[in-house]
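R.M. (postdoc): so does anyone remember the format we settled on? I'll just put the structure tokens first.
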């Protein structure tokens, strides 16, 4: 891929519509300074300076897609509570439509509060419930999704699964079958509970730890022979087309069960890995929808994932910086 092809690829992103299905949340950051220990317990006292709320979870995937120029259609279920209004306002602030966000009185809107001093995260507090959707809510949500897929142009469908219960096995099966009939690529960023429910998808992207847990096995990530064998067996069993594995400092591994490629990680000043997986799957979805080959898809996703690790907190990748690095860094091409 030469420089003209890279520029063309980023222009192509602007014409794409990606449907994101998954668990959304609010990422709340409490920033402050620590200068003493509490007299009540051996814990630091944080003198709060300011608080910031951001879109998180699957909504961060939507932000990554939007940042790269694509249209992101966010589909999820939240609570019918005070935080639901906050979430919708954050969507509005980012010019993201919320018409496929369903509210359920039986659920709460997930919020993760991170307490940060300087560049160090001291504590995280999660408010959530993780039960699967009720049958009534699942039916309503599926109907909304199917209606959208029936009447709109969709270039890829992305399941961003944070294991909070929005993505159910029945929903996975219904949407995947519909996508395959329509020829729409499907990509998955999984968690353990639904690991085995994803079948016949275009690209499956766990991290290495999630992959081992899903297979109920264990081996060192440096052992490429075992990695190849486990990947081949998994793809044969699941009938998924590609496996994309993030391997931390080793980089990204992609395979169709026969051919494989390991894209080394780029040297970075790592500040925070939060949200890197969101960025990787977002870029992979855009590349796949743009008909990039597997190595190109993995390389661009690898580059993007590394860039966001240089920032504190969950943030989307910056389009211009990613494009400039893709143009001038020897990614693989």
């Amino acid at each position: 891929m030469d420089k003209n092809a890279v520029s063309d690829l980023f222009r192509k992103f602007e014409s794409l519509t990606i449907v994101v299905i998954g668990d959304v949340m609010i990422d709340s950051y409490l920033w402050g300074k620590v200068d003493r220990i509490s007299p009540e317990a051996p814990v630091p006292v944080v003198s709060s300076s300011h608080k910031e709320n951001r879109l998180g979870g699957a909504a961060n995937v939507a932000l990554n897609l939007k940042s790269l120029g694509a249209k992101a259609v966010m589909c999820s279920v939240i609570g019918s509570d005070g935080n639901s209004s906050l979430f919708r306002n954050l969507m509005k602030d980012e010019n993201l439509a919320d018409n496929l966000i369903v509210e359920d009185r039986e659920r709460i809107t997930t919020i993760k509060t991170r307490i940060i001093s300087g560049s160090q995260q001291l504590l995280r507090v999660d408010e959530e419930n993780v039960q699967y959707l009720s049958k009534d809510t699942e039916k309503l949500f599926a109907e909304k999704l199917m209606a959208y897929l029936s009447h709109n142009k969709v270039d890829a469908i992305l399941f961003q699964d944070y294991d909070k219960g929005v993505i159910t096995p029945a929903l996975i099966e219904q949407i995947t079958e519909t996508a395959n009939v329509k020829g729409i690529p499907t990509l998955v960023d999984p968690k353990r509970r639904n690991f085995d429910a994803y079948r016949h998808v275009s690209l499956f992207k766990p991290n290495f730890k999630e992959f081992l847990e899903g297979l109920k096995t264990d081996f060192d990530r440096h052992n490429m022979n075992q990695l190849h064998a486990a990947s081949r067996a998994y793809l044969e069993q699941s009938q998924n087309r590609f496996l994309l594995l993030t391997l931390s400092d080793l980089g990204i591994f992609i395979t169709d069960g026969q051919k494989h490629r390991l894209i080394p990680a780029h040297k970075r000043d790592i500040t925070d890995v939060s949200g890197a997986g969101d960025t990787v799957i977002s870029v992979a979805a855009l590349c796949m929808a743009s008909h990039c080959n597997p190595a190109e898809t993995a390389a661009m996703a690898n580059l993007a994932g590394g860039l966001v690790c240089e920032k504190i907190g969950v943030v989307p990748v910056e389009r211009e910086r990613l494009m400039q690095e893709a143009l001038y860094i020897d990614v693989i091409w």
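R.M.: ...and that's the designed sequence above, right after the tokens. Also worth knowing: The mean pLDDT is 90. The radius of gyration is 20 Å.
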